[in-house]
């Protein structure tokens, strides 16, 4: 008997079918995980406490008293302080977009996750609104403003924000979303509208190509895309009833194409150059006198061991922001210490740090740090087996930024008091959010006497390399710890093989911010000199999987800096076109780099050799 032939599926159609099928199943699963509010609080639950809660709604959206009380009861029962309400008639594409971004089963517990919502109504505790500086009696926001507000409020209720469907709540009349409105909503979610529009257009082109060239399998993939809104959101028992479900399904390809084109056009218009402003004027004034004054005199000897045998390790421009200047890292031929030489002066540090972690670059930096939850938890877990079961009582995170580590580490050590220290204003915001109990603003050595003996744990995660005198920082850490306390340090490893392979495009050089890169042997010796015993040293576990991706990003930035940077020359059409061309050409390079980084991370963990290392040391009892 002749076996039946197995049909051959073209790989493009197979990938599209798998991706669309998985996305459809995931959307349906996530939708079923969203809680549904009862029409009114049950009698068994008693009378809900409406005091202390405010319901903020977008323009044109009205919520009845029963919905408000039911939302209050749900929030109290689930321990929530912020609750985004999804109208039952939420438009289909908006619902699918939200379900792509949010896994309701993990949303509340994800302390670092972005705040997401539908943009129509959000219930918030008055104390959260007060800490976030939100006036609940101000003008009613539009959908994009309410999306941004939900995102902000989750930062102030990190483990107490949720989603729920409100069956009696309606979106009201929904006009066709314009390109600028959609772009504004994507930005409110913290997403780049131009890049997403380009990705959507590329996906539609791929589908169209599959239909033309791959026959019935391409048609099957296109059909699945076409029917996805109904398959995910329709059918009996669906908690949502999108008013436009039939229309959104029937006309999906045309509507998607139009939305992507309009969004891309709006993103280009919205991305036009920054006007002559106080920020740009300040940069012009700073640069009028040149950049030489931002540097100190070149040092003839190693700041770690005093040797005069130095050699240039790498020389690069500012690839992080594209600000003027060139920077040299030199390596001591005797002890291996790598340091910036000549180093930046305090005035130079202020200039090159400006608009990176705060200001113009603050949101992007916050997004990056918010995605490092597994790394933060691994750092906190390093204390397991060395402290009591309840964990340390007090922990000071030095160089904490906005407190992302402290916020995530509460999942590991919920009974620990986390304080933070940093130079920037972000530490004050971290205190307002409740991510740290007490925030200290300033240089760590300035607090040596005030903090002496107060902490059971002091951490320095990717902080020591930014400091002007790392040995003084270690002295201060030793002073801040009680006898028997623990110091944990994580820094880039200048002895990583990737530093040689990638040269100036190795991200951990991080010029001009990194002042010192300390070999592990040097750090162990310095800790021993200060009365510490090293308990654990990890290399592979501390690896950050960004070697190749970072190299692509830095190379793209070198070839085409951001044309709208306020410290650069006025943007020209040619500069914009060049930047757009380079970014487009870099997309496949980023994809390949991500794959290589996955392989590299696996190898780093198997061989215990990565691009960073961390140590845990105990302060010996006299």
Automatic annotation (TrEMBL):
GO biological process: methylation
InterPro entries: SAM-dependent_MTases_sf
Pfam families, alphabetized: Methyltransf_23
Keyword annotations: Methyltransferase, Transferase
GO molecular function, one term: methyltransferase activity
Protein name from the UniProt record: Methyltransferase type 12
Organism expressing this protein natively: Streptomyces subrutilus
């Amino acid at each position: 008997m002749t076996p039946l032939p197995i049909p051959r599926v073209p790989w493009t159609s197979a990938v599209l079918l798998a991706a669309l099928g998985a996305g459809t199943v995931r959307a349906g699963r996530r939708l079923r995980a969203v809680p549904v509010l009862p029409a009114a609080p049950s009698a068994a639950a008693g009378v809900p406490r409406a005091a202390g809660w405010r319901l903020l709604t977008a323009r044109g959206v009205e919520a009845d008293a029963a919905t408000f009380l039911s939302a209050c009861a749900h929030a109290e029962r689930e321990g929530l302080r912020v609750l985004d309400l999804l109208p039952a008639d939420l438009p289909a594409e908006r619902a699918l977009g939200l379900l792509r971004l949010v896994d309701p089963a993990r949303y509340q517990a994800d302390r670092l996750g972005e705040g997401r919502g539908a943009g129509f109504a959000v219930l918030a505790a008055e104390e959260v609104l007060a800490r976030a500086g939100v006036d609940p009696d101000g003008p009613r926001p539009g959908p994009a403003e309410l999306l941004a507000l939900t995102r902000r409020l989750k930062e102030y209720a990190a483990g107490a924000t949720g989603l729920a469907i409100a069956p009696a709540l309606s979106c009201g009349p929904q006009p066709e979303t314009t390109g600028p409105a959609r772009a504004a909503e994507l930005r409110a979610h913290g997403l780049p509208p131009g890049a997403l529009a380009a990705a959507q257009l590329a996906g539609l082109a791929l589908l169209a190509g599959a239909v033309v060239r791959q026959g019935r399998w391409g048609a099957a993939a296109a059909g699945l895309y076409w029917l996805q809104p109904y398959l995910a959101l329709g059918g009996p028992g669906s908690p949502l009833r999108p008013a436009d479900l039939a229309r959104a399904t029937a006309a999906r390809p045309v509507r998607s194409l139009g939305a992507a084109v309009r969004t891309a056009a709006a993103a280009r218009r919205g991305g036009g150059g920054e006007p002559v402003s106080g920020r740009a004027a300040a940069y012009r004034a700073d640069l009028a006198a040149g950049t030489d004054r931002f540097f100190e005199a070149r040092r003839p000897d190693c700041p770690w061991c005093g040797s005069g045998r130095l050699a240039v390790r790498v020389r690069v421009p500012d690839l992080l922001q594209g600000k003027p200047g060139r920077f040299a890292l030199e390596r001591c031929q005797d002890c291996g210490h790598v340091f910036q030489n000549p180093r930046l002066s305090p005035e130079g540090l202020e200039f090159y740090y400006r608009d990176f972690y705060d200001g113009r670059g603050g949101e992007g930096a916050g997004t990056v740090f918010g995605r490092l939850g597994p790394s933060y938890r691994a750092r906190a877990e390093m204390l397991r087996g060395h402290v009591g079961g309840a964990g340390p009582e007090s922990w000071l995170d030095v160089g904490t930024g906005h407190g992302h580590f402290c916020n995530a580490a509460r999942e590991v050590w919920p009974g620990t008091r986390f304080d933070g220290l940093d130079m920037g204003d972000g530490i004050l915001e971290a205190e307002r959010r409740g991510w740290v109990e007490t925030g200290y603003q300033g240089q760590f050595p300035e607090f040596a006497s005030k903090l002496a003996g107060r902490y059971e744990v002091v951490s320095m995660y990717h902080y020591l390399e930014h400091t002007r005198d790392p040995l003084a920082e270690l002295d201060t850490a030793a002073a801040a710890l009680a006898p028997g306390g623990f110091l944990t340090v994580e820094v880039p490893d200048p002895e990583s093989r990737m530093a040689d392979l990638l040269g100036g495009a190795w991200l951990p050089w991080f010029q001009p911010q990194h002042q010192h890169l300390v070999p592990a042997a040097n750090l162990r010796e310095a800790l021993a000199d200060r009365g510490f015993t090293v308990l654990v040293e990890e290399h592979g576990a501390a690896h950050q999987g960004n070697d190749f991706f970072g190299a692509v990003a830095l190379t793209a930035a070198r070839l085409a800096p951001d044309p709208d940077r306020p410290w650069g020359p006025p943007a020209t059409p040619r500069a914009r076109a060049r930047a757009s061309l380079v970014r487009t050409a870099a997309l496949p390079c980023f994809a390949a780099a991500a794959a290589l980084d996955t392989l590299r991370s696996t190898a780093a963990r198997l061989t215990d050799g990565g691009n960073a290392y961390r140590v845990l040391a105990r302060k010996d009892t006299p």
